[in-house]
Write a structure and sequence with these properties.
With 153 residues, the protein is mainly beta. The protein contains one helix and twelve strands, in the order βββββββββββαβ. The protein has an eight-stranded mixed beta sheet with strand order 8-5-4-12-1-2-3-9, with helices on one face. It is globular, with a radius of gyration of 14 Å.
């Protein structure tokens, strides 16, 4: 099964968001590197927090609202749909550029803007993910570097 690693290296506050790098090994031995923006860590609260570090199963998903091809995560405290005893559901990887455009989801970008708290070319990054993973399921490992950590109790 294919996989990717998201390493968060900046846990922002308020509107700044949480930033990381998403590394995807390619079949030819090279790596595709994208960047991500998420909400700040808010103790895994639904809709306002990035998700905890850990290993997640990722599946292709079509948004019911508009049919957009996105990815949906499952694992640890996250499930596809609302379930008793699970803190979060419906956590997606989808196109967005700023943390205020996601509600607890992950937005990939091609780069991080040099003078603003956002990722760039998010739709391009989503196309790159779909080119690599297609309609296959994959695994996402999320970890952090630095003193701030997103670890659920």
């Amino acid at each position: 099964m294919k996989y990717a690693t998201l390493t968060r290296w900046c846990y922002g506050i308020d509107f700044w968001g949480t930033f990381g790098s998403l590394v995807i090994p390619q079949d030819d031995g090279t790596e595709l590197r994208l960047y991500t923006v998420e909400r700040p860590w808010r103790n895994n609260e639904r809709g306002v927090s990035c998700i905890p570090e850990g290993l997640y199963h990722v599946s292709p998903y079509s948004r019911p609202s508009n049919g957009d091809g996105v990815y949906i995560l499952q694992g640890r405290t996250v499930s596809h749909f609302d379930q008793p005893g699970i803190a979060r559901f419906g956590v997606l990887i989808h196109a967005a550029n700023r943390c205020d455009e996601v509600q607890g989801c992950i937005a990939p970008g091609v780069a991080i803007a040099p003078n603003a708290p956002l990722v760039t070319s998010s739709r391009v990054a989503m196309r790159m993910l779909r080119q690599h993973f297609g309609e296959d399921d994959w695994m996402l490992s999320i970890d952090s570097v630095g003193p701030a950590r997103a670890v659920a109790a």
